[in-house]
């Protein structure tokens, strides 16, 4: 099984190539992605460059409408319903609303707030008996967020790029689960230990 590539390995910065036909190699990539995501336990999405493949393929699992793990090929956003990107909110155990923090399997234990559309119409292809079948769906909430995160990976864009653009900082959690922001210098020290 392939290991998950961690930052700053160069493949994470490469633009992936469109899949033109579903062959043995693509079927293998799909299996490896689903296996690696399954093994990670905490991940809900994984893109081909994260296992060292430069193809426009990612998998999403455990999120509506991708519950049991689905593979998305040549994905794109076809509509954002003219809505603005926002920092998604989530409720903590006491019911307080706070910013949702994105994570990435290529940045173990590092999180951050990223502006996303909360509703998109997405289009992609799914392999069925070796054929690529076009699929379209309106994605909301976490489904929309993870789709945008994985789509970024296919362009070589990482969630820390959005933090930098928006002047936000990465976040880690201590053993008690308390949130702490990292300076970019602390971030560099942490990623050098990956
Ligand atoms: Zn990621």
Backbone structural class: alpha+beta
Q: How would you write the strand order of the largest sheet?
A: 1-2-3-8-9
Number of helices: 4
Strands, total number: 11
Name given to the CATH architecture = Alpha-Beta Complex
List the main descriptive attributes of the protein structure presented here:
194 residues; alpha+beta; Peptide Deformylase; two-stranded antiparallel sheet; 24% helix; 27% strand
How would you sum up this structure in a few lines?
The protein contains 4 helices and 11 strands. By secondary structure, the protein is α+β, with helices and mostly antiparallel strands. It has one domain (10-166): Alpha-Beta Complex (Peptide Deformylase).
């Amino acid at each position: 099984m392939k290991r998950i590539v961690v930052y700053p390995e160069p493949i994470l910065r490469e633009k992936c190539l469109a899949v033109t036909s579903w062959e043995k190699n693509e079927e293998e990539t799909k299996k490896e992605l689903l296996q690696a995501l399954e093994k990670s336990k905490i991940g809900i999405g994984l893109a081909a460059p994260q296992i060292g493949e430069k193809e426009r393929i990612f998998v999403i699992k455990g999120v509506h409408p991708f519950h049991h793990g689905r593979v998305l090929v040549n994905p794109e956003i076809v509509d954002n319903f003219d809505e603005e990107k926002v920092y998604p909110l989530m409720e903590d155990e006491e019911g307080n609303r706070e910013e949702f923090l994105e994570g990435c399997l290529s940045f173990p234990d590092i999180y951050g707030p990223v502006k996303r559309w909360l509703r998109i119409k997405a289009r992609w292809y799914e392999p069925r008996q070796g054929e690529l079948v076009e699929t379209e769906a309106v994605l909301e909430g976490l489904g929309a967020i993870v789709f945008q995160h994985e789509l970024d990976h296919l362009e070589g864009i990482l969630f820390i790029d959005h933090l930098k653009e928006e002047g936000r900082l990465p976040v880690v959690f201590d053993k008690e689960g308390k949130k702490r922001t990292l300076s970019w210098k602390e971030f560099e020290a942490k990623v050098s230990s990956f």
